[in-house]
Amino acid sequence: MILLNAATGSETTALTETLAIAEEVRQDIAQLKPNVVLETMRSWVPGLMAFGYRLLVAGLILFIGFRIGKMLRRMLGRTFQRMELEATLSKFLTSAVYVMVCGLTVFAAADKIGISSASIVAVLGSAGLALGLALQGSLSNFAGGILILVMKPFKIGDYILCEGMEGTVSSIGLVYTTLDTLDNKQVIMPNGTLSSSVLTNVTAQERRRLQIKVGISYESDLKKARQLLHQLFETHPMMMTEEPVVSFVDELAESSVIIGARGWVATGDYWAAKWDLTEKIKLTFDEEGIEIPYNQMDLHIRSEQGAQIPASNSVTKTEKRE
């Protein structure tokens, strides 16, 4: 019993001491905690204020920069419109200026909040290199489109010939140009091909020289035929009177005398005038007895003994052309 009381007393004393120590620690923590938090917060305040200031300045930079970009885009758009610049080129240039201003604004804002512009440039450079290698053909067409829009070798509505293709230009893009053919087919041509190949713009000038040649037989009246041809050209309603009509004898061929005439017509009237004159030449020559020869082959048949059959039995065969 005495031993039990002694043990209980020692445990009670130890528990009391532990509780006392815990109470002292609690009191120390209660006294120290507010001071530690306050000191920590006080140490954060300058940094937070500085970061908030930089963030505010960066926001202002973005706001002002984007507004300036939009103003420049509108101003350039109106300027290009007064200059009558191609709509596609105008849109591209205004967008490029806007993107450039916005990009510089983002770089300035990022630098203000502590993001290194060098790292951004490095990332964009690597991405641009990879994209350029992947899109070499498209970039070539894009560069060709810029050259076409700047140099203007043709415009919408022109009739062009290039690389065996021809048609009326219906649209000019930054990468492709669209042609409408005479039979109403649509041809999409890469601008890289158009800018680096020999190109013929049929409708670049307001007028075109129309020339027609026709062969007459050696038995026909050369002076009369030439006079009729000259008169048909000179009196045609689509022929321009600013320049004189010229008629000529072009060649003494094997079976015909080649005569011709040339004059000037409006570009839009070229084919109508050519077709109409061709028809009138044939009808007029037929009425006036001017023979337009065609290729012939005379077959002379001989007997088995080698004697030639008289000319009255000779056969004339006309070669037909497909």
Main traits of this protein?
Helix Hairpins; 19% strand; five-stranded antiparallel β-sheet; 322 residues; alpha+beta; SH3 type barrels; three-stranded antiparallel β-sheet; Alpha-Beta Plaits
**Helix share of residues?**
55-70%
Per CATH, the architecture of the domain at 207-288 is 2-Layer Sandwich
Average pLDDT score: 81
* CATH topology category name of the domain at 207-288: Alpha-Beta Plaits
CATH class term of the domain at 207-288:
Alpha Beta
Shape: rod-shaped
Q: Assign the structural class, choosing from mainly alpha, mainly beta, alpha/beta, alpha+beta, or little secondary structure.
A: alpha+beta
**Proportion of residues in β-strands:** 15-25%
Number of helices: 7
Following the backbone from N to C, one meets helices and strands in this order, namely: HHHHEEEEHEEHEEHEE
DSSP E strands, number: 10
Distance between the termini: 141 Å
Largest sheet: 5 strands, antiparallel
Keywords: Cell membrane, Membrane, Transmembrane, Transmembrane helix
Pfam families: MS_channel_1st_1, MS_channel_2nd, MS_channel_3rd
GO molecular function: mechanosensitive monoatomic ion channel activity
Transmembrane segments: 44-68, 89-109, 115-135
